[in-house]
Amino acid sequence: MNSGGKFIIKAIGPNCLDHSFSFYRRSKFESIDRFGEDCFVRPFLYDNKPVLIKVNVPAGESPSFHISWRSPQSITDVSGLRSKLAQMFYADFDLNLFYDMTLDRVMRQLTKKFRGFRPILTPDIFEAAAWAIIGQQINLSFAYQVKSSLVKLVNRHFEIDGESYHLFPTVSDIASLNADQLREIKFSYRKAEYLLDLARSIDEGRFDLYQLAELEYQPALEKLLAIRGIGPWTANYILMRGAGHRDAFPFGDSGLYTAIKNLYKLDTKPSHEYLEKVAKRCRPYRSLATFYLWKSL
Description:
Blueprint: E1 3-10, H1 17-24, E2 34-35, E3 39-46, E4 49-56, E5 64-71, H2 78-88, H3 96-99, H4 105-113, H5 125-134, H6 140-154, E6 157-160, E7 163-166, H7 171-175, H8 179-184, H9 189-203, H10 217-225, H11 232-242, H12 254-263, H13 272-280, H14 286-295
Antiparallel strand pairs: 1-5, 2-3, 3-4, 4-5, 6-7
Helix pairs in contact: 5-9, 5-11, 10-11
């Protein structure tokens, strides 16, 4: 039974969808997100049922997100879907809490330049984790190609009005694969092991990835760091993009080093201590600071 509807979700504080969506229009290899001239289309699973959302993207600041959604199945928890979308688009966070902090000159300039920029979270934390593992120590374009190959390999999809939409593989989808299949689509041997180990530990109930959103930052970080193949960068990325933690900071990220070197007009690559100094000023919203620094690139 088909279902669908529309939401108007008011954002708390300044809101500029154009800033947000332009940040994610970065790769021609992206196989799931779709961008039109003034809209964003995203399929994902909600309550194990496929959902397709379409978000209108007006120019300039807009107080609300206008989102239409459809599913080839019956979605009964519509209020839960609305809450999920509010979290996914950071609409439930007051950006003024970040803007009104005692930020340094560079961060103040970024918040003015990109006023209303809200990160878009990954709909499912496992997708964020898999993407983080895929992206370890490779360039972004190649990472997108590997992701696209993984999506095609599993081929989980659904149709709306005769058009097919691919979904990111589920935990069980990945757990059922083997290392040779991943190696064929350009996974390194180690990354294939890491991704399969993570998926199987979740699938078999040995690790609760979905609990991380409910934990405080430090306990959540420690749980992730105990997993083979997940270091500080990967763990912080998962907490930022998947679990929605506001105070994660992916130390070691090459983009952060580049952004800070450029914005702070440094002659050489900043030291780890320099990054810590910049990040410390942005507590407890280091995740937002990270997104604004990435946005500057």
